[in-house]
Write a structure and sequence with these properties.
The chain is an alpha/beta fold. Helices cover 39% and strands 12% of the residues. It has a domain of 306 residues: Amidase signature (AS) domain (Amidase signature (AS) enzymes), CATH 3.90.1300.10. The protein has an 11-stranded mixed beta sheet with strand order 1-3-2-4-6-5-10-11-9-7-8, sandwiched between helices. Helix 2 runs antiparallel to helix 3 and helix 7 runs antiparallel to helix 8. The chain is globular and about 70 Å long. The relative contact order is 0.14.
Length: 498
């Protein structure tokens, strides 16, 4: 076991803790020290639970000493996106309106992490209520990309991805509504998985768009993602959208990591014009590797993907308008203008004005308009029809191929401030990831090299049908192994030292 604990994969750390080669406390302390060393520059964390993490690590060590190992990840530290409720720990969703709120309960994902012995280090930064593609819309300031601190780490889960890329944690949880796990993974050189909708419980996940939101793993290796998904996945009766079906064996798939005989479809609509040349180059090189590994690659067309962005930005704001109505200053969080001379309506208005940022207000207004009398059928109703057409495109494609692939993002990470005042330019960052959320499918982003123009990471996206999550790990594991053999290391090992 190397002395540099922070650079070890989670699977390696878990095995070393179980073998008592190193203690969970030592591993946890190493990552807490790393956070103290670099997070003033990265700003991946909004809250670090030092005492809670060390106490949880001590409990794991005591169990290991008695021969009890809760899971392969027992004793391994994790960073949690600040959109998931954690009992007694501040949960802000990156917003002033929830500043100081400490939930009285754990989200199901948090319960399952605790039950597996995973050590939660703290809560990570995010675009406010998960609305954004750069983590610049956080009320607590932007997160910085460890590859270049002047650039964005993606969003909305940039804090989780940056924590992984800067070696502040070996594991993280993100949420993906339109690409908020996969897009940050692509621009930080990490692995991010959006599981099948309903495959991971949403109980305790503060809702943005209830028909789109999904929690999932953020890691540095495909196997670590598989181990983490196996911990958090599975049926939960407290979530009405949870799938009551066996969880695909993603760990076995990651171990097998074999694409021989698979048919892989290149989505014509998700590459080419509008994509950075270096992104396209690295993507095509990775596809050629998959062919060399024994896969058959064909081009497929999903014509309605061209309308996905427009449909998404009607469906998401509509659901967000409904979900965020509960944040009114009456029950928890921020309250402004609370005096005897003001009506309840005035207090609600003043609280929402002060507590919500510009992007949240923009989307609430868009959604309220789209749901209003006389416009519902023309906007929200039409968008749902487009969603059905996108689902049919996927179904037709998967009748002919096993998986679909595309670049995860059209460009590498852009500079902080470059697009923050141009909402449409910002929204276009998710053009390749949004169709998966609209259809409820699952997808993975994994690093496939650095763009020659700027030396920044490029991600390849793998898309599979609902409840076929294991196929992600067959392809991802095989490609990762081939790239490791080619480079002699994992791409993440090239991240500049902070």
């Amino acid at each position: 076991m190397e002395a540099d604990l922070i650079r070890q994969p989670a699977a390696v750390l878990g095995d070393a803790i179980a073998a008592r080669e190193v203690s969970a406390r030592e591993v946890t302390k190493a990552h807490l020290d790393r956070i103290a060393q670099v997070d003033d520059r990265v700003h991946a964390f909004l809250y670090v639970d030092t005492d809670g993490a060390l106490a949880a690590a001590d409990a794991v060590d005591a169990e290991i000493a008695e021969g009890i190992r809760r899971s392969p990840l027992a004793g391994v530290p994790l960073a949690l996106k600040d959109v998931l409720a954690m009992k007694g720990v501040p949960t802000t969703c990156g917003s002033r309106i929830l500043e100081g709120w400490r939930p009285p309960y754990d989200a199901t994902v948090v319960e399952r992490l605790r039950a597996a012995g995973v050590i939660i280090l703290g809560k990570t930064n995010m675009d406010e209520f998960a609305m954004g593609s750069s983590t610049e819309h956080s009320a607590y300031g932007p997160t910085h990309n460890p590859w270049d601190l002047e650039r964005i780490p993606g969003g909305s889960g940039g804090g989780s991805a940056a924590a992984i890329a800067s070696f502040e944690a070996p594991l993280a949880i993100g949420t993906d509504t339109g690409g908020s796990i996969r897009q940050p993974a692509a621009v930080t050189g990490t692995v991010g998985v959006k599981p099948t909708y309903g495959g991971v419980s949403r109980f305790g996940l503060v809702a943005l768009a209830s028909s789109l939101d999904q929690a999932g793993p953020c890691t540095r290796t495909v196997m670590d993602a598989a181990l983490l998904q196996s911990v958090i996945g599975g049926y939960d009766p407290r979530d009405s959208t949870s799938i009551n079906a066996p969880v695909p064996d993603v760990v076995a798939a990651a171990e097998r990591a074999d694409v021989r005989g698979m048919r892989i479809g290149l989505v014509k609509e998700l590459s080419g014009e509008g994509y950075q040349a270096g992104v396209e180059q690295r993507f095509r090189e990775a596809v050629a590797i998959l062919e060399d590994l024994g896969a058959e690659v064909v081009e497929v067309s999903c014509p309605h993907f061209d309308y996905a962005l427009g449909a998404y930005y009607l469906i998401l704001p509509s659901e967000c308008s409904s979900n965020l109505a509960r944040f009114d200053g009456m029950r928890y969080g921020l309250r402004v203008g609370d005096d005897a001379d003001r009506s309840v309506e005035e207090v609600m208005s003043l609280t929402r004005e002060a507590g919500f940022g510009a992007e949240v207000k923009r989307r609430i207004m868009l959604g309220t308009y789209a749901l209003s009398s006389g416009y519902y059928a023309a906007y929200y109703g039409q968008a749902q029809k487009v969603r059905t057409l996108i689902q049919r495109d996927f179904a037709q494609a998967f009748a002919d191929v096993d998986v679909l692939v595309s670049p995860t993002t059209p460009t590498t990470a852009f500079r902080i401030g470059e697009k923050v005042d141009d909402p449409l330019a910002m929204y276009l960052n998710d053009i390749a990831t949004i169709p998966v959320n609209l259809a409820g499918n699952c997808a993975m982003s994994l690093p496939v090299g650095l763009a020659p123009e700027d030396g920044l990471p490029v991600g390849l996206q793998v898309m599979v049908p609902p409840q076929a999550d294991d196929r992600l790990y067959l392809v991802g594991g095989a490609l990762e192994a081939a790239l490791r053999d080619r480079w002699g290391h994992l791409l993440i090992e090239e991240v500049p030292a902070l």
